[in-house]
Amino acid sequence: MSAAAASAPRAPDGALRRLSDLLWRRPRLLLALMLAAPLLWLGVVYLGALATLLAQSFFSIDEFSGLVVHEFTLKSYAELLRPSNFDIILRTVTMAACVTIAAGVVAFPIAYYAARYARGRWKAVFYIGVMLPLWSSYLVKVYAWKLILAKEGILTWLFSTLHLTAVMDAVLALPVVGGNSLSVSYLGTFLVFLYVWLPFMILPMQASLERVPKSLIEASADLGAAPRATFRHVILPLALPGAVAGSIFTFSLTLGDYIIPQIVGSSRLFIGQAVYAQQGTAGNLPLAAAFSVIPVVIMGVYLTIARRTGAFDAL
């Protein structure tokens, strides 16, 4: 055998050649084989866990023995309508809605400037500025805000230095949202939520605004529309899918968050804390599962509405 023949790569055997030819002739079969493993994992782990969770919510717990009774019942969902439990749901949904609206108001001018005026190096600075908070640890950010909002924190010191202590005291004296300090108030919880989830609103909104043709804005001005009218009738409707896309993140992440309300805010529970308390301390797995189903149902309805607005195109 010659040296050239010995160094030549060996041809694949007949079985591999036939398999290769088969996959080349049938690209859909190749795609199915490539997706089989991740789809199986998704179906077993994720969808299986959701199915188990849903099944647990239709069971109940025996009040005498504390054991789960594996019989179909709506008792756990009926318990959600109790004032104490329903207040938890209402509190969480209200906070999620307020954070989403505030994030949209704060994010719009930032996203608009980045889409319309930032170019070159300033565009890179914008992306770094928005993404930089996401590179740090979630827990570090929350605990840092805990210190910032504390009664002895830098925010209180700043208000005192600016001789605005009366303003701080007036804010803390507000009913419901106030407290002894911002770190133990609903307002503090709201501020931390807003800071942590704001990038998830800015980026989809900025992407949506970049798709608004400049010719439409110029045509609106040529037809005599004032800047306010152009914003209301041209820019805002076209940017709405981006705002709805961002709201999917801010609303859902706030709805199911456990850590921020646990570290910053009052002692009143949110849905995430209620799930932990029911399955951990109380040992009431059916009620914990029923609490967990609420965000899933709410987001299912919300995503259905968002899809009709074209929000998925801005993700």
Cα Rg: 27 Å
Report the CATH C-level class of the largest domain.
Mainly Alpha
Sheet with most strands: strand arrangement: 1-2
The outline comes out as globular
H/E topology pattern: HHHEEHHHHHHHHHHHH
Q: Give the name of the CATH architecture of the largest domain.
A: Orthogonal Bundle
Which percent range fits the helix content? over 70%
Q: Give me the secondary-structure category.
A: mainly alpha
Runs in which pLDDT lies below 50 for 5 or more consecutive residues are none
**How far apart, in Å, are the first and last alpha carbons?**
60 Å
Name the descriptors:
315 residues, single chain, 1% strand, two-stranded antiparallel sheet, MetI-like fold, mainly alpha, 2 strands
How would you describe what is shown here?
By secondary structure, the protein is mainly α. The protein has two domains: 13-53, no CATH class; 82-314, MetI-like fold (Orthogonal Bundle). It is built from 15 helices and two strands. Strands 1-2 form a two-stranded antiparallel sheet. Helix 10 (186-210) crosses helix 12 (227-256). The protein is globular. The model has no long low-confidence stretch (mean pLDDT 84).
Describe the SSE topology.
Elements: H1 3-7, H2 14-25, H3 27-57, E1 60-61, E2 68-69, H4 75-79, H5 83-116, H6 121-135, H7 138-149, H8 154-161, H9 165-172, H10 186-210, H11 214-222, H12 227-256, H13 259-263, H14 271-281, H15 285-308
Antiparallel strand pairs: 1-2
